[in-house]
């Protein structure tokens, strides 16, 4: 009996070794057979949260490239939106008279590109921004500038590699807008120092405007496509001028943390402008 | 007591570094350093053998848990811990069968040749076992050999760098 205990004492580490090696082999066997996930699942419940926080940290380091890819994808999607096109209907008589069989072609009216804001002011009376794309990248004057949240401004000056943008936060900016659901057209202007708030002018007093109503572009200017979000109504007052309301709106664009902007080009702008020029001459 | 805390701390840091950084390093697409082996290499030789095996198994299991390769590292580490005293003994060049007399396997008491050979042999044992168990086939054996060789050399390089960066001559000789 003593011999046996003595043997166990001497051989104890060998027994431990054998047990551990066998345990490893059993685990190995389990993980190789594809229908037994119990061990994997049990361990994952402990290890998972750690790996998740680690992956989150690594992800934050790679946000830049991922953002670029998402911007590209956004542009692809934005380009397909219906306000990018005008529908031309062939009005000559066709064999079938059903309306849906009319020869309708979609013509692209607007096109998108994107840029990054490299300099901006928001606290002055005359604010401006500079973006990192210019004439070499196809940027031209009077292109519309959008933020991810809504309308941001208009390109006013272009050099070969950079462009100046006049945001809504500028006394000379005027954007034709429509307020829904009242469906009244007006003009968005900015006065004062608050980069979060602008005014909506020339809305007749009889229209029913409620706080929280949305303001969109109406597409009259040929700069902004129709239906882009500008902001929501914050305050409605009867102005000094008795025929119009004074409407304060919260701007959708967060100018203080604006980095990526989308630029919209009207492909038919020269044609439309030439028509406007003729109109002035007469 | 101080020694125990130092060892536990070393295990924690090296295991964290292993699962957070080293497992994601893929030099040339396949080379991963097994940095956590350093904690096992520096384990005192005087510890009871069964405890050494257990520590090896558990640290292997921790690495396995993060890499979803159950049994691979556990087996390789346990085997390596079993062979560690023999390797140290062989390098000491004595026929003395008692493992307790072996000095600490650190750069201070041992010269560079001893430490590098010790690291190389044990890393090779670990990598051969782990890579073979993970591959589980002799198909494309050339590539398996390349992975073993690459992993071993990378591991040895990283471990020796760390050992000699943190080795302070005065502390070890005192």
What can you see in these coordinates?
The complex is a heterodimer of chains A (282) and B (174). Chain A is 30% helix and 32% strand. Chain A has helices spanning 2-32, 38-61, 63-79, 269-281; strands spanning 85-89, 104-108, 110-120, 129-131, 144-146, 151-158, 163-167, 175-180, 184-189, 197-204, 214-217, 229-238, 244-251, 260-266. In chain A, strand 5 and strand 6 form a beta hairpin. Chain B has 174 residues and is mainly α. Chain B has one domain (2-173). Chain B is 68% helix and 0% strand. In chain B, helix 1 (2-20) runs parallel beside helix 3 and helix 4 runs antiparallel to helix 5 (112-135). The longest helix of chain B has 26 residues, at 141-166. The interface between A and B is medium-sized, with 25 and 24 residues.
Query: How large a portion of the residues of chain B is in β-strands, by DSSP E?
Result: under 5%
Return the string of H and E elements of chain A: HHHEEEEEEEEEEEEEEH
What coarse outline of chain B follows from CA principal-axis ratios? globular
Largest sheet of chain B, in brief, is: none
CATH superfamily of the domain at 175-254 in chain A: Rod shape-determining protein MreC, domain 2
The residue fraction in helices of chain A comes out at 25-40%
Computed over alpha carbons, the radius of gyration of chain A is 32 Å
Order of helices and strands of chain B: HHHHHHH
| Overall mean pLDDT of chain A | 84
Class computed from helices, strands and strand pairing of chain B: mainly alpha
Estimated share of beta-strand residues of chain A: 25-35%
Detail the poorly predicted runs of chain A.
Answer: none
Helix content of chain B: 55-70%
Query: What's the alpha carbon Rg of chain B, rounded to whole Å?
Result: 16 Å
The number of helical elements of chain A comes to 4
Q: Spans of chain B of 5+ residues with little confidence (pLDDT < 50)?
A: 97-101
Shape of chain A: elongated
Q: Indicate the CATH topology of the domain at 175-254 in chain A.
A: Thrombin, subunit H
Specify the structural class of chain A: alpha+beta
């Amino acid at each position: 009996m003593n011999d046996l205990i003595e043997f166990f004492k001497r051989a104890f580490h060998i027994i431990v070794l054998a047990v551990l090696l066998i345990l490893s082999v059993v685990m190995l066997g389990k993980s190789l057979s594809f229908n037994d996930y119990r061990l994997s699942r049990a361990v994952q419940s402990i290890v998972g949260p750690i790996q998740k926080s680690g992956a989150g940290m690594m992800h934050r380091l790679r946000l830049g490239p991922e953002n670029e890819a998402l911007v590209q994808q956004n542009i692809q999607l934005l380009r397909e939106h219906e306000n990018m096109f005008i529908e031309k209907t062939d009005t000559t008589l066709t064999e079938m008279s059903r309306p849906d069989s009319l020869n309708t072609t979609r013509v692209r009216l607007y096109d998108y590109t994107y840029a990054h804001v490299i300099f901006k002011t928001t606290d002055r009376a005359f604010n401006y921004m500079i973006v990192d794309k210019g004439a070499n990248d196809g940027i031209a004057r009077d292109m519309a500038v959008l933020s991810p949240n809504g309308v941001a401004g208009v390109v006013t000056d272009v050099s070969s590699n950079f462009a100046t943008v006049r945001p809504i936060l500028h006394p000379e900016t005027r954007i034709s807008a429509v307020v829904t659901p009242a469906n009244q057209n007006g003009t968005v202007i900015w006065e004062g120092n608050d980069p979060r708030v602008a005014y909506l002018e020339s809305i007749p007093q009889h229209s029913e405007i409620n706080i929280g109503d949305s303001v969109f572009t109406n597409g009259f200017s040929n700069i902004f496509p129709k239906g882009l979000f500008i902001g929501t109504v914050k305050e409605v007052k009867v102005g000094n001028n008795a025929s119009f309301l004074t409407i304060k709106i919260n701007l959708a664009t967060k100018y203080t943390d604006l980095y990526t902007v989308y630029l919209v080009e009207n492909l038919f702008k020269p044609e439309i402008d030439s028509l406007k020029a003729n109109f002035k001459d007469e | 007591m101080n020694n125990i805390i130092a060892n536990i701390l070393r295990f924690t840091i090296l295991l964290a570094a292993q699962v957070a950084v080293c497992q994601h390093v893929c030099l040339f697409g396949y080379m991963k350093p097994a940095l956590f082996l350093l904690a096992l290499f520096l384990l005192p030789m005087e510890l009871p053998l069964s405890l050494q095996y257990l520590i090896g198994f558990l640290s292997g299991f921790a690495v396995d848990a993060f890499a979803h390769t159950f049994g691979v590292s556990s087996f390789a580490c346990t085997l390596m811990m079993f062979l560690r005293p023999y390797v140290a003994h062989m390098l000491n060049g004595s026929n003395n069968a008692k493992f307790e007399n072996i000095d600490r396997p650190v750069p201070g008491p041992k010269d560079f040749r001893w430490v590098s050979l010790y690291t190389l042999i044990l890393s090779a044992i670990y990598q051969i076992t782990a890579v073979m168990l993970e591959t589980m086939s002799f198909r494309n054996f050339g590539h398996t050999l390349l992975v073993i060789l690459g992993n071993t050399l990378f591991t040895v390089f990283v471990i020796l760098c760390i050992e000699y960066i943190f080795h302070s001559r005065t502390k070890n000789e005192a």
